[in-house]
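Hi support team,

I submitted a single chain yesterday and got back a structure, but I'm not sure I'm reading the token output correctly. Could someone confirm the output below corresponds to the sequence I sent? I've pasted both exactly as they appear in my results page.

Thanks,
R.
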Amino acid sequence: MIEVSPIADEAEEQLSLGLYNAVWPHDEYTLAEVHSFKSGLVDHIDLLARADGEAGGSGLALIGPNRPELVFAVVTVLPEHRRRGAGNGLYEAISNWTRERGLDEIEVPVLDNDPESLAFAERRGFVEDRREKGVVLHLAEIEPPPVDPPASVEIVTWAERPELARGIYEVALEASPDVPGYENERAEPFEDWLAHEMQGPSNEPEATFLAVAGDEVVGYAQLTLKAAQPTRAHHHMTGVKRAWRGRGVARALKAAQIGWAKANGYEELHTRNDERNAPIRQLNKEFGYRPAVGRIYLKGPPLSGRGS
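Hi R., thanks for writing in. Yes, this is the structure output for that exact sequence:
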């Protein structure tokens, strides 16, 4: 007997997160990081699926400020609990929640090495929308690359130039719509963007690098540092103003990130890039990044009616 219900308290929220981290160990989070993420959402629901009282699955459905026209959902079921109805129950509950908010499209991620979950989504009418290729750089195997920005450009950390936050935002406004997979995302107002993208528990000014020409920020690159993964750092965003592209700015920023991560004891650098993003994928290849787990994003409908 499968029972799906919203989480009731922080203990159940931690239980839900534990299920997620067990199935997605390469992408672990702490509860503090989850709370920070949820604080920037328009709406969300966090669900637990139990079989005979034992929690075996969780689901998070959310509406974000960048794409309020759809629901993004992550459904997690432990391998030993699959094929017992937990996934169906979570999908039904998320469908009900989606329709109650007047929306008719759900986006879900699936690991690209998980054909069982991919088939589960496709059987329910979900269709692949895009793919992100995962890569990893093993820092013990490389020497820090030289940081060689173009003439008149200096690479500094945000910690060194905290007054340049507005300049970073201007780069993000110009660069984000050009990133494959993010073309249709809405930009948040500056203060919201600053709180949600730059000042969370995984964001450190010392690990955010700026390319500065005079007092103008022409590019930036940010690392995400998760407390749940103390030996891994993750590339979050690398953006360069259009007029400065093709001149080595992104290469210098990434070289600075690699050197910083190695000097600060990190063992691996991870990132995912849309398979259409040829320039950054080529740059990663030149720096020695190797293939790792990626994601497939699918879009599909909620169930047509409550209890379907």
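A quick pointer for reading it: The longest helix spans residues 86-100. Let us know if anything else looks off.

Best,
Support desk
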